[in-house]
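Before relying on records like the one below, remember that each one covers exactly one chain. Contacts with other chains, cofactors or solvent are not represented anywhere in the record.
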Amino acid sequence: MYNKYGDVIGYTSLIFDITNEINLNDESSILQAQIKKAQEELLEKNNLLVQQSKLSIMTETLKRLSHEWRQPLNLISLQAQKLEIDYTLNEELDPKETISSLEKIKDEASNLSKTIEDFQHFLRKEAKEELVNPKEIIDNAVNIALKDKNNFITVKIEYDKDFSFYTLKNEIILVLVNVIENAKEQLIKEEIEKGSISIIQYHNEDKIIFEIKDNARGIDENILHKIFEPYFSTKEKKHGVGLGLYTSKLIINIQLQGVITAFNNSKGATIKISIPKKKEIKMIIIPARLNSSRFENKILADILGLPMVIRTAKQVESLDDVIIATDSKKVVELAKEYGFKAVMTSSEHQSGTDRINEASIF
């Protein structure tokens, strides 16, 4: 308050009690921290459960392997012993019989090797999701599974055009190969004159679906619920030990968090694979050369209180991933200080594009 001469003669004050607001903000911060901690713990427990499931499944599978592999291993041993005895007794050997024995050994060894390869895919931890399109996935699977197909099998393919999705590429191809091979063998077993395999892919809001249909008269309803069990097979023993569909179920359930089911259609069987649709990963790589010939240390120039490279990164930090590609350890340390990823790239690059290309392989 002032008098007519401009002198201060008093004060007027307004006092607000903001204790509740402060307490609410503190409680909100504490609650957010607790939620974040709970989410991290839940994710850790979920990963632990997945690993425990894998160990449990593999323990049971190894027990079955030790039992089921005895037959093919005994056959290999018997064929080898036969050849050894024939040579030891100096009997006149029939080349056809020798070749036949060697082929039997080779076939059994190949079956056992395929089983190991399938489980290596299942146990692999380094797999990364990548952007693929349905045509690429299906064409790869068909070329592998039907490379020696008989002329009586017609293949029909339908898929979403102009559609891509993120998935474990090799894993989904392996599953499709197993399912298609199973359909092919069933057509041969049933002696279908005009065999047909249809591979249909479509998607909805949150799932990607593959359906593989054949006209091999379907699966006996009494055993339909067993086809994904380990070592269950309707094939003759010489064709393998029945791990293809079992391995496929493991990959779909555990690695792809999806579902695989089987049911009969009017002409044969249908295997339906459903996997969750992953969101697109939006990432940006920012080229940041420290030793610029035109403006040395330009990327460290102060822009409204922040180094230019950090200011640039902050403008796009709403994306899923922001990476700074640089030729300077100083910039790497600076990026870490502000919570951004950074990778060292060659100082010989002449353009930002070259630097981005190198950083993209990390």
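Residues 20 and 26 are 10 Å apart (CA to CA).
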